[in-house]
Write a structure and sequence with these properties.
By secondary structure, the protein is α/β, with parallel strands linked by helices. It has helices spanning 21-29, 47-58, 78-91, 102-109, 116-128, 172-185, 190-206, and strands spanning 3-7, 14-18, 38-41, 64-67, 97-98, 133-137, 146-152, 157-163. The chain has a single domain, classed as UDP-N-acetylmuramoyl-L-alanine:D-glutamate ligase (3-Layer(aba) Sandwich), CATH 3.40.1190.20. The protein contains 7 helices and 8 strands, in the order ββαβαβαβααβββαα. A 6-stranded mixed β-sheet has the order 3-4-5-6-7-8, sandwiched between helices. It has a two-stranded antiparallel ribbon with strand order 1-2. β1 (3-7) and β2 form a beta hairpin. It starts with a strand and ends in a 12-residue tail after the last helix. Belongs to the ThiD family.
Length: 218
């Protein structure tokens, strides 16, 4: 666990508390004798925690590593985002898949993205920087009716498109990256893992219940 997050009662914001660095070191050390098939990396709240995480995955290059580079949230200052963006670039050669949203892809690639062509250009840059596989998540910024994600591996690219469902979509990006990790751990190819994960998240949102509403089963 890299941090503890608290949400305000009125859900107007949240606070991020990084895990004490010594505790985080002990958490990583506790994994030395545990066999696992995939690693999913999400929010890394400090450079110190990011450094330790990078060293850890450098020692586990025999398994799939999925990086969801959580760079953009309002609590983050511009200077902190710049430092963390530079650190995330160091991860690229050591991760199997990176799953940035549009804003994160813009920061990592140093480009403005407003079209699918721009997404492909960003993917080319990230590939040159060492990324093996990536999924740039378009969300609703490119098209208010369809969520367009771009998969690329430096050779081929493929779009995955689903209708936007305006409900219960908080955490969709994190869930998607976790699903990719789970599919890879079960032996799926990266492209298949991405396809299955996109469908899984879409179905989860589509079939979700409204927050705070309980259904009585017969």
């Amino acid at each position: 666990m890299t941090s503890i997050v608290t949400v305000a009662e009125n859900a107007s914001g949240f606070e991020i508390f990084p895990t004490d660095i010594e505790i985080f070191k002990r958490q990583l050390d506790s994994l030395n004798d545990i066999a696992f098939d995939a690693i999913k990396i999400g929010l890394l709240p400090s450079i110190e925690i990011a450094d330790l995480t990078l060293r850890f995955i450098q020692q586990h290059q025999d398994i799939s590593v999925i990086l969801d580079p959580v760079l953009v949230f309002k609590e983050n200052k511009d200077e902190e985002m710049s430092l963390m963006t530079a650190k995330m670039l160091e991860f690229l050669p050591y991760v199997t898949v990176i799953t940035p949203n549009l804003r994160e892809a813009e920061m990592l690639a140093g480009l403005t993205i407003t079209t699918v062509s721009d997404m492909k250009a960003a993917a080319t840059v990230l590939s040159a920087l060492g990324s093996r596989h990536m999924v740039i998540k378009g969300g609703s910024r490119l098209d208010k009716h369809f969520a367009r994600d771009l998969y690329a591996d430096g050779v081929v690219s493929r779009e995955f498109v689903k209708p936007i469902v305006a409900r219960n979509n908080n955490g969709a990006g994190c869930t998607f990256a976790s699903a990719v990790a789970s599919n890879l751990a079960h032996g799926a190819s990266v492209l298949t893992a991405v396809k299955q994960s996109k469908e899984f998240v879409y179905q989860a949102i589509l079939n979700s219940n409204d927050y705070g509403v309980f259904q009585l089963l017969p």
